[in-house]
Specification:
The structure is a single chain. With 445 residues, the chain is an alpha+beta fold. The protein has 3 domains: 176 residues, Gcn5-related N-acetyltransferase (GNAT) (Aminopeptidase); 68 residues, no CATH class; 176 residues, Glutaredoxin, CATH 3.40.30. It is built from 12 helices and 22 strands. Strands 1, 2, 3, 4, 7 and 9 form a 6-stranded mixed sheet that branches. A 5-stranded mixed sheet has the order 20-19-18-21-22. Strands 5-8-6 form a 3-stranded antiparallel sheet, with no helix packed on it. Helix 1 runs antiparallel to helix 2. The radius of gyration is 24 Å and the shape is globular.
């Protein structure tokens, strides 16, 4: 295995590698190969840090770097850098090649005097190369509140002290949005590669109908073009056979909220899929005809003892048709820091949990799990009783940094109860103990 600078004769092979590496990973199809194609002529591109990894005469990896900047509080710009896409051939993933390529490139960047890097990525991988949450360096992500802890926005000082005690906001360079800025050019470019099937898949960025806002979680949710191919921009209720079934409701990027909620209401809880805590896709269609409770959970929260009450309800009523599904979430005061495996072990040992646990998700914001967007649309307000519960509700509303809309979830252990016909009946506040929901459950069984 060797690492060297990319040469012009490598370009097509590297772009095809990038396409293979990212296909259906973050979205149906991918855009990263077009970004790379366009970036080489961008003034922000750094050719001295454009590396390929070879093995047995075949290119199996690639990484590129770009100049960037951070806007300081006084409006001035501070020089920084970013990198990506980082591409590893699918046959070579999870074998350590990506980390070797990244560490090599970071060392070369440091030798060039590059002092600070920030990027978007999975901290579980990039922490092994020295990256941590950018918020710890007081670098904020554009479009997010200054006090937000954005889990995918990472940074690293390659030269200690380069950033100092500054504070600022980072926006990805415009070149990374080339496919969005030039959709026709992107489509023509991608058509020059071998055909591949696009699909919606678990773990991708949230996809929504560009007309009504309905979550798109599987291919069947989408509309179709005149040739029968799937159109991943619109849902089946808005677009069929290459035609809109109603006027497009997008206006200057804003959705018509009444239509949005109407279309979200047309979805059913059984239309959704999500990853369980072992990484396997779970189809909620299997729970049709059951009474279903969905809860966002956390292991280090004052409400964590509610695991016991939830398990007690499950054991008492599971044979009568009650299903409980817990989604761990780390959006509230970092109270669910563990891995999916650690969370499951904690729940088993400390609370005897046997009901279904899912992979850790966001419940608010741009990366919210689609099923929670649906639940919030169906039950936008929660029930809480008594002055103490009301006071706690007010306190949590002040503490919750991820809340942007009135319907957003305020804290851990918000509960949604769905009856046998799939209707979302009620939403319960974190202060509502599981035992206090028993009467409602009984009435549905």
């Amino acid at each position: 295995m060797s690492i060297r600078l990319e040469q012009p004769q490598d370009w097509r092979e590297v772009e095809n590698l990038t396409r293979e590496a990212f296909w259906n990973v973050y979205r149906p199809g991918c855009q990263e190969h077009f970004v790379l194609n366009q970036y080489r002529s961008n003034p922000a591109f750094i050719p001295e840090l454009d590396f390929v990894m070879e093995e047995d005469g075949r290119i199996i990896g690639h990484i590129m770097f770009s100049k960037a900047e951070i806007t300081l509080a006084d409006g001035t710009s501070f020089p920084s850098w970013t990198f990506g896409p980082v591409s590893i051939h699918p046959d070579c993933k999870r074998k350590g090649y990506g980390l070797k390529l990244l560490r090599y490139a970071l060392e070369k960047a440091k030798e060039m005097g590059i002092g600070l890097l920030q990027m978007e990525g999975n901290i579980e991988f990039y922490r092994h190369a020295g990256f941590d949450l950018a918020s710890k360096l007081r670098i904020h992500y554009h479009g997010e509140p200054a006090d937000a802890e954005v889990p995918y926005f990472l940074a690293q000082e390659l030269i200690p002290g380069y950033w100092g005690d500054r504070e600022g906001t980072y926006c990805p360079p415009a070149g990374y949005f080339a496919a969005d800025a030039q959709p026709e050019a992107f489509a023509a470019y991608d058509a020059g590669f071998p055909p591949k099937e696009k699909h919606l898949a678990p773990g991708q960025l949230p996809q929504f109908c560009q007309s009504c806002g309905m979550p798109l979680t599987k291919d069947e949710d989408c509309g179709h073009d005149a040739d029968g191919s799937i159109n991943f921009d619109y849902c089946q209720y808005c677009y069929q056979d290459g035609k809109f079934l109603q006027d497009c409701t997008m206006n200057a990027g804003k959705m018509n909220e009444s239509v949005q909620h109407k279309k979200i209401n047309m979805a059913k809880i059984y239309d959704f899929k999500a990853l369980n805590n072992k990484g396997a896709e779970m189809d909620f269609a299997q729970y049709e005809g059951k009474v279903l409770m969905i809860v966002n959970t956390a292991s280090k929260c004052g409400f964590t003892p509610q695991y016991d009450g939830l398990e007690a309800l499950y054991q008492k009523y599971k044979d009568q048709g009650l299903v409980i599904v817990g989604f761990p979430c780390d959006q509230f005061a970092h109270q669910e820091p563990g891995t999916d495996e650690e969370i499951a072990e904690f729940c088993r040992i400390n609370h005897g949990v046997t009901f279904q646990l899912m992979a850790k998700v966001d419940v608010n914001g741009a990366n919210a799990e689609p099923i929670f967007e649906y639940l919030k649309a169906q039950a936008p307000t929660e029930e809480y009783k008594g002055l103490k519960a009301k006071a706690t509700h007010t306190m949590l509303k002040g503490l919750s940094k991820s809340v942007e809309k009135d319907s957003d979830i305020l804290w851990n252990f918000t509960k949604f109860l769905i009856c046998r016909d799939g209707s979302v009946v009620k939403r319960y506040a974190p202060t509502t103990e599981p035992k206090d929901i028993e009467q409602d459950i009984n009435s549905m069984l």
